[in-house]
Amino acid sequence: MANVTDLQTKYSKLAQEYSKLRAQNQVLKKGVVDEQANSASFKEQLKQRDQSLRKQEQEMDSLSFRNQQLAKRVELLQEELASKADSPSQHGLETQCVFDEDLQKKIEENERLHIQFYEAGEQHSRQESELKTRLQELEKDSEQHQAVVGRLTTKYMETIERLQSDKARLEIKSQTLEREAKECRMRTEECQQQLRLSQSELNRQVKQSSSVIQEKVPFNDTKLIGYNSLNVPPHNRRHQLKARDVAGQALSFIQDLVAALLNFHSYTEQRVHIYPLDSSIEPISPLNQKFSQYLHENAAYVRPLEDSFLHLHQSITEDTVTVLETVVKLKSFADHFSSYTHFLQKILPYQLKSLEEECDTPLCTAALTAKNQELQSDMKRLTSVFEKMQSYINLLALPSVRQDAMPQSSTSAVFTQLAACLHSLHDAIKEMSKHYNQKASLEQELPTITQKLCTTTECLLGSLGSLTSSTGKIATFFSNNLDFFTSSGYSPRGSTLALNPLQAESMLANKKKAAAYISALKKARPQSVPYSDALSNRRVLTSSTESREGLSQQVQQSQDKIARLEQEKEHWLLEAQLGKVRLEKENQRIADLEAQLAAAQGGSLNSPPAAASTPVQSQEEAEMEPSSGEREATLCTSLVGMLCTTPSVEHVGDEESRETLIKTHYMARVGELTTQLQISDSKAVHFHSECRALAKRLAIAEKSRETLTEEIKLATQKITRLQDELATTKRSYEDQLSMMSDHLCSMNETLSKQREEIDTLKLGSKGNAKKNKGR
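Below the sequence we write its predicted structure tokens.
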């Protein structure tokens, strides 16, 4: 049923996500339509502006033409006035002077209006070009938006199809789970029946055990508190696993906190050596030297916090009993925390004086002085929070040292106050990080700032950020597990009092003995073998042992015989080679003898027959001698190829050829083995280089994967930023267009006023001209 509920929940979530996607798709479609309508309206406005501009140009041309006519008319009037200047009366002269002044003012005003009209036309054309450029950019942005909308529409359609397939799959799964739920209900009914049977059996056993206890147990140690404290409490495995898990999480947070504190103190030391005086250029003040010396010792106070808590985590196992009275390693952690708090108290005055020294520098502004004062108050607040935490941690470590050191009812209050102190620590470090950031931004404006100081300040701000994050995690973790910390853990059976720390060690030893005894009882005994089976197995084992020995002897004999045959094979191969050599030598000798015989027969044709018979006999004797030598050599040659006859010249040659053949054979064998070894070495080198290349390719692939992941993150951030910029630009363009429309309206009004003034001037000039003609 739980699986069906989960499936229904997932299905409802998917339906909600689908409805959200549809709503977003409709909003995007509406935005595209609005953008297209705006683009069309912009184009229409541009056309209207072009038309109005052309009208204004035409009017300007007509005005210039009329202005030229007026100028010519004025020249003619001036010439007429000049010709009539000799015979006017005094009243005519005054009237002419007034008319000239009025005409001069009108001419100047006309010139000013022409200049303004020209400037307005130039400004209008420039604004028109800017608006055209902006309109083109907006059209490009609209096209890009349409492309994005198309991609999003495709993506949403794919998402809809995937959700529909997920819906079908989940429906099938829900049907399967419903069938399984029916089967589970049937099994539940069966289990309930078995449970009723087990309860009845357990009730019977309880009655029997209680009667046995009343009759057989003479002493009940649970009635006495002193004896009962030595009894092993009921083991709560879930509590122990939870305690170990909580200790492991706390250890990871403590490690992060220790790393952040080390970085903060180290970068503070580097900053002291750089600002307000750079130690590489001139010596720093004695106060900062002492402060730097103390900061250099921070690892001796911070590192033991991690080590002591690691020992505390290692002491919490599944087999132990974890309560405040048995956690002895907590006292070591409390001592190291107290030493670190004393270290903070020791460096606090130097830290405050160092900030005052920064305020005394000539380039320190009033804003920097205010930030330094805020940092001084932050340092004081941080040290006071650590002092409070030290007090509460020492209180929690007391029950493992002394009995009745802290009432059990006060434990929950101590844990609650410690959680509040952790939140105060997070707030103090967060406030200090904010003030440091503001101070760093003010220092960037100083003219004497160096790159070294900027880098150190950035590192210091990074350490403060990690310190803020780690303290926030610790405070949240402690608040989330506050119920577990304040819950009553182990206590002796039949007693509500806490464990005695002096007797906790004996209780743990009793627990180990009991666990060993139970495991010894549960150890299964080895099954015995019947006597008849043992006798038959012994006979089979004896016969198999004898047959195995006989077979091993036969195998050994066969191996010896194979080795001997191999040796004989090598020997007969050498003998065959020697026979081939001898055969070649005999054939050569026979050919030489035949050549000698032919030469002797050719020379004895003129000699007497007796003389001819003598060489024939000598030749037969000569032929018989080598044959007898060969027979003797053949008979006296042993199986191992050793000659036992008296070495003659021919035998010495045979031994040399035999040794040469043996050397040749073994050198060929050595060459083959060398070739095989070289091939194996080359293969090994090839495989080694290939493995190295694959390892390098794997490392490069990992790096490229990380790089691509970072690029994807940056691209996502850039897209978000561009979308924000696009919205801002769109709003600014709309505002500018409205302003331009207002400006164009005002310009039209100005032009209409100018036209009216020009028409008035024309009428006035025409009236003056008529008056002059009448005169």
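Residues 237-486 form one domain.
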